[in-house]
Amino acid sequence: MQTEYCELCGASLSKPGKLVQIEGAKPMRVCDKCAKLGTEVQGPRAPVQTFGRAVITSKQPSKGGQQPMRKRDMFDYLEGDIVEDYPQRIAAARLAKGFTQKDLAFVLKMQEGDIKKFERGDRIPTEAECKKLEKELEIVLVDKADGDQKVQAGGVAATTLGDVLQVKRK
Q: Which of 10, 17, 146, 159 could bridge across to 29 with cysteines, CB 3.0–4.6 Å?
């Protein structure tokens, strides 16, 4: 058996060293003393034999070093920001129209549990659900971000960093 050495300090390893990642460097096999300097990581998994062919169970990055794309969530699809008091608005408008939660769910072709969650604030309605609720209950749930992104007539943004900061000169 060939003697292994710590990749950090060079000491010989009497037992299998630990695989450790130190400050973003690639994982290296180190002694117990040097292992305290980083975070221990799992080694690559051995191939698993299935139906006569080897299959590697660990996944490799798909494209040359690129980060995987973040999974899109409902906030990527919203045109504006949902109002903070949406549970109260939904409940008040429903009661003003004389609907029970079950009636509203039936009219909107949604689950009664979803209406309950909206009114408790446990769940934020999706854009499609917001549109249905706004149309049926005649309320506004989504604030459009028009004022923040408008450009002045001169073609300059409304507020610049220089407008906010006060520069102290010596």
A: 17
